[in-house]
Design brief:
alpha+beta, HU Protein, Chain A, three-stranded antiparallel beta sheet, 3 helices, 5 strands, elongated
């Protein structure tokens, strides 16, 4: 499911105009991104959580030349599936 499909599903389920459904989805994702960018954590009970993991800098290798390249420290978002989501994945037949 992509963002447009999520907007369409919200539009149909909540009987909202497409512009309002799009605003709700945008607000949801913007608030999640803002919270994560400030170092916070987003938890949706039973579904998932998002947090920021900090990675130290290290020396990497350029795959083409084999030269050593310094990699700067970075922060990346990390997704963790909740118990409810894990349970649903294991019950469904693929």
């Amino acid at each position: 499911m992509n963002k447009l499909e999520l907007i369409s599903a919200l539009k149909e389920q909540a009987n909202l105009p497409k512009t309002e459904a799009a605003s709700v989805v945008e607000l949801f994702f913007d608030k999640m991104a803002d919270t994560l960018s400030r170092g916070g954590q987003v938890q949706i009970r039973g579904l998932c959580s998002f947090c920021i993991k900090k990675y130290k800098g290290y020396i990497g290798l350029n795959p083409k030349t084999g030269d050593k390249v310094p990699i700067k420290p970075k922060k990346l978002p990390f997704f963790k599936a909740g118990k409810g989501l894990k349970g649903r994945m294991n019950r469904q037949k693929l």
